[in-house]
Amino acid sequence: TAMAKGHPFKRAAATGKTIAVVGAGPAGLACAHRLAMKGHAVTVYEKRAKAGGLNEYGIASYKATGGFAQKEVDWLLSIGGITVKTGVELGRDITLDKLRADHDAVFLGIGLQGVNALRAAGEDMAGVRNAVDFIADLRQSKDLSKLAVGRNVVVIGGGMTAVDAAVQSKLLGAENVTIVYRRGQEKMSASGYEQDHAVQAGVRIIHNAAPVRVLGSSHVEAVEFAYTQDSADGLKTLSETFTLKADQVFKAIGQTLTGAPDGAAVDGGKIASAPAKVWAGGDCWKGGEDLTVTAVAEGRDAAEAIHAHLTGA
Fold first, then answer.
1. β-strands 209-216, 220-231: how paired?
2. Is residue 171 within 8 Å of 62, Cβ to Cβ?
3. Helices marked H in 82-236 — which ranges?
4. What is the pLDDT of residue 63?
5. Which DSSP letter does residue 126 get?
6. Is there a contact between 226 and 243 (Cβ–Cβ < 8 Å)?
7. pLDDT class of 258 with cuts at 50, 70, 90
8. Residues 192, 198, 200, 204: is their CA dihedral positive or negative?
9. What local confidence, expressed as pLDDT, does residue 288 receive?
10. What Rg do the C-alpha atoms of the chain give, in angstroms?
11. Which among 112, 113, 108, 115 is positioned nearest to 23, based on CA atoms?
12. Is residue 180 classed as helix, strand or coil in its secondary structure?
């Protein structure tokens, strides 16, 4: 409704300042928009073919209407003063030093591109893949009938991505879909609503179990799990195990930062500080909460800080 009414923000007079924004996800786009509103010229560098970040590539199809993410991007860019360059990756096509030399400021909204390892034998076997990649393929597919899905799908993890992968698998025709989470239900980061939705869709959820090894010859055939116990001393793996038949396994156990830019300090798998003229926000930043609303707020706040730095306002 808001987008249909036009753009409520007006671009200020050009300042002559240029800012590079790396990453066209919620944090980067929010930062670019606020900077453009202040009159600065912004160039957004995005390694994928489309802008939008996880709103375009990481949300299950049943949660977002077709094309909405791109309509939102188009609406945001209509303020003017923002150029988006896709297919450009930091560290491969451009360097942070080059961006710092060519621009008055740089904002990093690069997200978390890597996926944590299962640390289970056989996890590199064919048929085991990252849930976020599956969701991305699903979102970009023009013919879902051509998207491969197993008969027996096991999703390892307890967050929203795990639920998305599981429900989508069921909607695509998988016969048996099971989510396995290493801790109790109360520790799952997926909301109670999401968990209920998964169960109603026919997904089985097993708590307090961790993967031990992936079984199969050339392609996954099953996954062996060990029961776990969450205690004051941490998570303990028990001796009792069980096996789930699986011809497709999705890893959804959290994402991690890959390829931290030169000069950026990393703490706990996220950027904790950045060199001069560089700001960061969103999922890649230590203060991020892996939430779109937080990423947008941090991008906006970084833009205000950059503007104050450049203008002394």
1. antiparallel
2. yes
3. 96-102, 131-140, 160-171, 192-200
4. 76
5. B
6. no
7. confident
8. negative
9. 66
10. 21
11. 108
12. strand
Locus of tokens 């023009």: 142
User: Which amino acid is residue 175, in one-letter code?
Assistant: E
CA dihedral 33, 35, 37, 38 (to 10 degrees): 170
DSSP state of 111: -
Distance CA 102, CA 8 (A): 31
Q: What is the DSSP string of 79-127?
A: TSSEEEEES--BTTTB-HHHHHHHSSEEEE-----EE-----BTTTSBT
Q: Which amino acid is at 313?
A: A
Q: 26: helix, coil or strand?
A: helix
CA distances from 51 to 28, 59, 72, 150 (A): 10, 14, 10, 30
Q: What is the dihedral of CA 84, 86, 91, 96, to 10 degrees?
A: 0
Read out DSSP for 201-257?
TT-EEE-SEEEEEEEESSBEEEEEEEEEEEETTEEEEEEEEEEEE-SEEEE-S-EE-
- Give me the half-sphere count of Cα atoms (radius 13 Å) on the Cβ side of residue 289: 8
Span 20-26, average pLDDT: 96
pLDDT value of position 67 = 82
Contact criterion met (CB below 8 Å) for 67 and 262: no
3-state secondary structure at position 67: coil
Residue pointed to by tokens 């978390």: 112
Residue with tokens 């996926």: 115
> ∠ CA 264-89-138 to the nearest 5 degrees?
115
Helix count and strand count (H, E) for the chain: 8, 17
Taking residues 291-301, what's their average pLDDT?
A: 93
Task: State residue 146's pLDDT score.
Answer: 73
Q: Is the dihedral of CA 187, 191, 196, 199 positive or negative?
A: negative
Tokens of 17: 């300042």
Q: Percentage helix, strand, coil, to 5, in the chain?
A: 30, 30, 40
